[in-house]
Design brief:
This protein is an alpha+beta fold. The chain folds into four domains: 12-202, Heat Shock Protein 90, CATH 3.30.565; 207-330, Ribosomal Protein S5, domain 2, CATH 3.30.230.10; 390-425, no CATH class; 448-581, Ribosomal Protein S8, Chain: A, domain 1 (2-Layer Sandwich). Helices cover 38% and strands 22% of the residues. The protein contains 22 helices and 22 strands. The strands form five sheets. It has an eight-stranded mixed beta sheet. A five-stranded mixed beta sheet has the order 9-10-13-11-12. A hairpin with a 2-residue loop joins β7 (189-194) and β8 (197-202). The longest helix has 19 residues, at 449-467. It is globular, with a radius of gyration of 30 Å. It starts with 11 loop residues before the first helix and ends with a helix. The structure holds adenosine-5'-diphosphate and magnesium ion.
Length: 610
């Protein structure tokens, strides 16, 4: 019997409807697309009119460029865009996210009426489209610009329409989108009406006035400006003072090249900058604009383009984090901090490579690059002044007489208000087995023992890793472990890395492995834990790529190895810990960015005692 062929091409209409589901999920998605089109058309005044939370009507009226009759018709075709002409544009284009799909998608799932006119034309064009079908096209009288009405969204996709949430919820989504676009374009005047009532009337202004207009007067006194330039990105905008932090999220805005994005990663970089200033659960307010070479951003990760991937995400993290700390410090909200880059960041190619002349010129004025740069290297944190100072501090501690023979430059450094000028005394005090307190001339130094050990181990392992040799010790009783098949595949992949840090693990068939050797000093019984952790890391790796694997592995090993409490029971052990810590290139932070030690100044101590 002949089996009939089964493959059919989907009709344009069905294809558009499917695509529409991706781009247009709810009325707010249409709002976003239409507002952005108005902005892209160079409008200086934009009005948004919605009825029934956008279910009945989403209308955007702009005074932008308008369209010719042909363009008006073309604009509803899939992949019709005036914004990308060739493949290079894809990378160069600053206003990102054009796929020429929005209008086609909207027209597939709604009844659309468009009126548009170019400045140079006498008459405009009126177009009526219902579910991709052009019902009417005629000349009409209309002001320069575009007036587009999207009625009865999802009228032909009942399942979708049914899926929409309550009017309150849908309208909240609309206001969210409106807010984002309005924040990104303070120079444009916006108005928003809902069911005939005006909700927002935003004058053209600057970012500060826009924030206050949109979010409320209370923000006025709580805004701290951020403005940094580096060779990788520029950061501008405002962050809130710690007291403006809220218990719920919502007032956090990132814009990459002026388009709103979400990024848990970048959010972390900002909140981390508030460490110690706001509660752990609180969300700091921020409206931050990151400008970055579009070639370094991948915007097509998510169809609605709110999630992006960066080429140098860790470097961005550091810059953003430092920018926040700097802004807070400059406004005397936080004490001046050291802006040091972690070793992981230092090893990035973009950090290691010397800057080009152009980059140098561009960034020389910038605060961040001045902090991070030294001697022709892009921004080699190890050489940052404050860090050098910690090293001197360590050196002084090692030889008490050294204090008297400081060269003039160090003397100068010691006069700097922000530097902690002192030497480490040999007296240490163990607090609850977890912390070391040692007196220094200007006060007390508090050291988190486990974190210090973690840092020391990490740098030792990193060095060994780079040298390609790690001390390994053979187990007296090799340990056998059986894994789930999926886990075995993952472990197989990691075996070479594990071998490089001292694990001698051999496959034994049937998803079974035998651990014959482990890194020297790994506490007994930790073998299996390490393996489980490695597998767990690998499972979650995909999102970030494999480049960080070795560093993560090292950080993880450092964590395992640093659980040795006995080493610091004796004063000699304590002194060794301090010596080793300050021999590190980054004594201040653990590999994952936790603070290792802190200083309490004499004045602060006196203050505590009134
Ligand atoms: P994209 O914005 O990705 O190019 P759209 O489907 O949103 O795709 O729009 C298609 C095209 O229609 C745009 O490239 C632009 O040329 C034109 N267009 C859409 N909206 C407007 C508007 N408000 N004013 C002028 N031209 C517009
Ligand atoms: Mg568009």
């Amino acid at each position: 019997m002949q089996v009939p062929d089964v493959i059919q091409l989907l009709s344009d209409h069905i294809a558009n409807q499917i695509a529409a589901g991706e781009v247009i999920q709810r009325p707010a998605s249409a709002v976003k697309e239409l507002l952005e089109n108005a902005i892209d058309a160079g409008a200086t005044e934009v009005q948004l009119v919605v009825k029934d939370a956008g279910k009945e009507l989403v209308q955007v009226i702009d005074n932008g460029s308008g369209m010719s009759p042909t363009d008006a018709r073309m604009s509803f075709e899939r992949h019709a865009t005036s914004k990308i002409k060739n493949i290079e544009d894809l990378f160069k284009i600053r206003t990102m996210g054009f796929r020429g799909e929005a209008l086609a998608s909207i027209a597939a799932v709604a009844q659309v009426e468009l009126k548009t006119k170019k400045e140079s034309d006498d008459t405009g064009t009126k177009l009526v489209i219902e579910g991709t079908e052009v019902k009417l096209q005629e000349a009409c009288a209309t002001p320069t610009g575009t007036n587009i009405m999207v009625k009865n969204l999802f009228f032909n996709v009942p399942a979708r329409r049914h899926f929409l949430k309550s009017n309150t919820t849908e309208f909240r989504h609309i206001v969210d989108e409106f807010t984002r676009v309005a924040l990104a374009h303070p120079e444009v005047a916006f108005r928003l009406w809902h069911n005939g009532a005006e909700q927002f009337h935003l004058q053209s202004g600057n970012l500060k006035t826009r924030i206050v207009e949109l979010l409320g007067k209370s923000y006025e006194k709580n805004l701290v400006p951020v403005a940094e330039e580096t060779e990788l990105l520029n950061i501008n905008g405002f962050i809130g003072k710690p007291e403006a932090a809220t218990r719920t999220r919502g007032m956090q805005f990132f814009f990459i090249n002026n388009r709103f994005i979400r990024s848990a990663y970048l959010h972390h970089a900002v909140s981390n900058g508030y460490e110690g200033l706001i509660e752990k659960e609180a969300f700091p307010f921020y409206v931050l604009f990151l400008e970055i070479d579009p070639a370094r951003v991948d915007v097509n990760v998510h169809p609605t383009k709110q999630e992006v991937k960066f080429e140098d995400d860790r470097l961005m993290y550091s810059y953003l984090n430092a920018a926040v700390k700097h802004a807070l410090a400059r406004y005397n909200i936080a004490p001046s901090l050291d802006f040091t880059l972690s070793p992981e960041i230092q090893s990035l190619p973009s950090v290691q490579l010397p800057m080009t002349e152009r980059q140098r010129e561009e960034t020389e004025r910038g605060y961040l690059s001045n902090t991070f740069s030294k001697g022709g290297q892009a921004h080699f944190a190890e050489k940052s002044d404050s860090l050098k100072h910690w090293k001197e501090l360590y050196a002084i501690a090692a030889s008490p007489s050294a204090e008297k023979v400081q060269p003039a430059t160090e003397q100068a450094a010691l006069h700097n208000e922000n530097e902690i000028s002192t030497s480490i005394n040999k007296n240490t005090l163990l607090v609850q087995g977890a912390m070391l307190v040692t007196t220094v001339k200007s006060g007390l130094m508090l050291i988190h023992i486990r974190r210090a050990q973690e840092r020391i181990w990490y740098e030792r392992l990193l060095q060994e890793w780079n040298n390609g040799s790690t001390a390994s010790q053979q187990l007296l009783f090799p340990m056998q472990c059986e894994l789930a098949p999926q886990d075995a595949i993952l472990l197989n992949e990691a075996l070479p890395d594990l071998a490089r840090i001292g694990f001698d693990i051999v496959p034994f068939g049937q998803n079974t492995y035998v651990v014959q050797g482990v890194p020297t000093d790994l506490p007994a019984g930790e073998e299996r834990n390490v393996i489980d952790e490695v597998i767990d890391e690998l499972k979650h790796e995909s999102a970030e790529g494999t480049t960080k694997r070795s560093e993560k592995l090292l950080a993880q090993m450092a964590r395992r190895l640093s659980r040795n409490k006995h080493a610091i029971q004796q004063p000699e052990g304590q002194q060794t810990l301090i010596d080793e810590l300050f021999a590190c290139s980054q004594p201040e932070y653990t590999p994952d960015g936790k603070k290792v030690f802190t200083m309490v100044r004499k004045e602060e101590l006196e203050e505590m005692l009134g």
